[in-house]
Amino acid sequence: MGTHPLLKVENVKKYFPVGRAVFGRSKQYVKAVDDVSFTIDVGGSLGIVGESGSGKTTLAKVILRLLEPTSGKVYLDGVDLFSLNNKELRKLRPKMQMIFQDPMASLNPRRKIMHIIGQVFKTHTSIGDVEIRERVVDLLEKVGLTPPELFLDRYPHELSGGQRQRVCIARAIALNPKLLIADEPVSALDVSVRGQIVKLLLEIYEKHIDEIAYIVISHDIALIKSLCKDTLVMYLGRVVEKGEVRRIIEEPLHPYSQMLISSIPVPDPEIARNRKRIPIGGEIPSLINPPKGCYFHPRCPYVMDRCREKTPSLINVDDRLVSCYLYSE
Ligand SMILES: Nc1ncnc2c1ncn2[C@@H]1O[C@H](COP(=O)(O)OP(=O)(O)OP(=O)(O)O)[C@@H](O)[C@H]1O
Ligand SMILES: [Mg+2]
Q1: Lesser CB count within 10 Å: N end or C end of the chain?
Q2: Which mutation among 48, 56, 184 tests ligand 1's pocket best, with the greatest number of atoms within 8 A of CB?
Q3: Mind listing the pLDDT tens digit for each residue in 1-29?
Q4: Exposed, middle or buried by CB within 10 Å (0-12, 13-18, 19+), for 242?
Q5: Is the Cα dihedral 76, 82, 87, 89 positive or negative?
């Protein structure tokens, strides 16, 4: 398998304007995504982890141009996505797919499953109705909705949460995407079906590993670990740490990562003893008036003077990137 960057994200920003400029005060923005860069090779998988409001969904939507970027560049297999016009973008859509946070909201309640998945082929291919039906049946089988005939004529509300998520996954993989983004793929689901969906996502990923780049978004780093090799840790729109998920869980460097890791229960008392404990606490600052310097400094137990002045840049430490003055000379 040759590795080359399939997805390249460069300095992506998304600022949402809020309110109106008034005399003496400039226009205000929510800096939902603030200068994020990373690459994923063919066959690579990347997690995006962070608390609610850290910009995970916004980043995903900007990458797929479901939201227009404020600035930055995204290349998918060498194609500059931000320079495409609507027609070109529509043509590329099947190649970049997202499984959304809320499976119910992303399925049309008035359409049957046959129509919902079949529509993808109608829009993007010229294959006829008989073959579309065969393809939909195949897909339902692939995502474990069997026998498929039992599901074709049902409406989304006639399915369980786990089954609905399977439909969303079937639709997303229908036309062999190169980039697949799963946004909180199991958080709307019952604990008992989460494992099954994780298993399905892993099977799909492994089957398509030669052609796909894969992003999983979650507030839960343990879920990220079961699906991805590497992860970004995001805090208020910025990347604070990046590296192998396993390493970040074993030895989180950024105090914010330490805080996230502290919140996962560990069965092994040895790990628990060695773990730096940082209680989750403090208010998440406002994104409209973020603090100067490192955004995490008001909540950080190791805060130093310079943390309040200037944002630390991402630097290489051991086997990863981290943005924290604790690790620079
Ligand atoms: N259309 C919008 N207009 C203004 N602000 C927005 C808009 N969409 C998102 N935001 C803000 O951007 C920030 C990031 O939101 P986003 O949904 O990306 O977070 P998230 O990390 O996905 O959170 P969650 O874990 O809750 O899904 C939030 O402060 C949110 O209020
Ligand atoms: Mg989200």
Answers
A1: C
A2: 56
A3: 456 789 999 999 999 998 766 676 677 88
A4: buried
A5: positive
Say what the pTM is. Answer: 0.92
Domains for the chain: give ranges and CATH numbers.
5-110+155-327 (3.40.50.300)
Distance CA 207, CA 131 (A): 23
The DSSP code sequence of 22-39 is: BTTB--EEEEEEEEEEEE
* Burial class of residue 286 in the structure, from the number of CB atoms within 10 Å of its CB (0-12 exposed, 13-18 middle, 19+ buried): exposed
Question: Which atom belonging to ligand 1 lies closest to the Cα atom of 61?
Answer: 18
Joined together, the tokens standing for residue 277 give 């404990």
Burial letters 249-265, b for 16+ CB under 10 A, else e: bebbbbbbbbbbbbeee
User: What residue type is 265 in one-letter code?
Assistant: P
